[in-house]
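Notebook entry, structure prediction.
Reason for the run: the old model in the group folder had no record of what sequence produced it. Starting over properly, with the input documented here first.
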Amino acid sequence: MLEKLLKTTWESALLMLLTSIGIYFVTILLTRVVGKRSFSKMSSFDFSMTIAIGSVIATTILPLKVNLAEGFIGLLAIYVLQLILAHFRELPLIQNLVDNKPLLLMDGTNILYQNLKKAKVTESDLKAKLREANVTHLNQVKAVIFESTGDVSVLHKKDDSLIQDWIIDGVQQ
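New structure, fully documented this time:
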């Protein structure tokens, strides 16, 4: 019985490896196309990893078609891809391919409706986030940013000082 769990062919192992690599990159691509709302609080990088691991674990545990060795190969391939991408995400090209950019939703009291539409955020969603951030009047808002993780950050206007460039570096206007 143990032999059945661990026995696999080179052809089957290669197929599992190629499938893992393919589904990993397709998942990143699709989550980039669909947008940040599909995985709030996770980057596309993290979301792809979570989905891929869940898929491999489910396929390994549920059907009898995939044995333990093949599940291990698929899971190992995904972890290796994650480590490789994590290392190379420091490169701007790779970061642009796998990560979403933050998007400015409000500049002061000015609601950027085009960016709301781009982010698939409704005015009701925006109002809810403002209430969550204890905003009682729009003149209290310096900026609202739809983060790369799907979170919404509200920067409060406590005085007339400008937002430091480093804080909003990379935010799409």
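Summary: DSSP finds eight helices and four strands in the chain.
The old model has been moved to the deprecated folder.
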